[in-house]
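To: structure subgroup
Subject: Chain for Friday's discussion

All,

I'm putting the inputs and outputs inline so they're searchable in the archive.
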Amino acid sequence: MSGAEEREPGGAAAAASSSSSVSSAAAAPSAAGLGGEAAGGAEEPRPLPLAEAGVDPDAPPKKRLKAAGGGGGAEGAAGSVKLEERLYSVLCCTVCLDLPKASVYQCTNGHLMCAGCFIHLLADARLKEEQATCPNCRCEISKSLCCRNLAVEKAVSELPSECGFCMRQFPRSLLERHQKEECQDRVTQCKYKRIGCPWQGPYHELTVHEAECTHPTKTGNELMEILDEMDQTHKKEMQLYNSIFSLLSFEKIGYTEVQFRPYRTDDFITRLYYETPRFTVLNQTWVLKARVNDSERNPNLSCKRTLSFQLILKSKINSPMECSFLLLKGPYDDVKINPVIYHFVFTNENNETDYVPLPIIDSVECNKLLAAKNINLRLFIFQIQK
């Protein structure tokens, strides 16, 4: 036995022979300060109040929760967080790795895709003239092969999600309503925005701002300048509606459902284009053509996607035919199109309009059309008679 080991019993004996008052005074703080060790884990530690734990009571809820539970005492809460994280990784989209916000589709092997990514995969495959495949298992996917997974949609809707304004947790199915109507920290605008107030801020500050807002005290000249700008925007909208109503009073009006079908050019690098079968409107034969991103070389590499179309008169006519025309969504489609009226004078020598934009709201709506087997729209033609 070494010298150090021989000296240990002697030291222990000396400590034991010390005064009882000293040993009891040392034992008391030990039992109070190290209760978990002294009791052998018999009692669970109680969480301290926020002020005693050194947490700011006015801090955001998420920060308070994290600071209060940072000691690692709440093992049950940590376990539930880990379960949620595991569920996130199981239920997330295999493409964007985010939880789906709406419909959830699955391939034949069960891999999940959110609606946006699913449509984007189909649109990309159409542009590249390939069969769309699941990014996980490479099985073929299409609208007929894939189906929605309602169980996953319901499970995702019940998972907690954080409000972007107040940082509180809500089931995803209730989050939208909370953010739009209930959250006291949601961004709102001053009620005097109609006379030019640019203020935006949290809802709980709205009453104070409106009581101090200076716009109600502006002079008439200042308000007239603001209202003139608003009138210009409103005037453009009214011109469109008035034009549509005036066209509806024409004697010769025709409309039909048109179906754009995908084709490929004969170029070395083929390009996708769409064309309708011939159809008859106003006793004349017509054809519509459409192209993606104005026939750029690789539209599949572009995030921004657009469609433009061309109206072609196939019949022979005896005199120039002046027409107004517009395309709207079909009766069974949900694509969003802003109506735009185009004008053209058709002759036997000039029977094709220029390519004009199909007024789709954004690239997401364009992908919906590209992902479909065919594009179904409704065409209106108004013949202008002089």
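Points worth raising on Friday:
Residues 220-247 form the longest helix (28 residues).
The chain is about 35% helix and 20% strand.

D.
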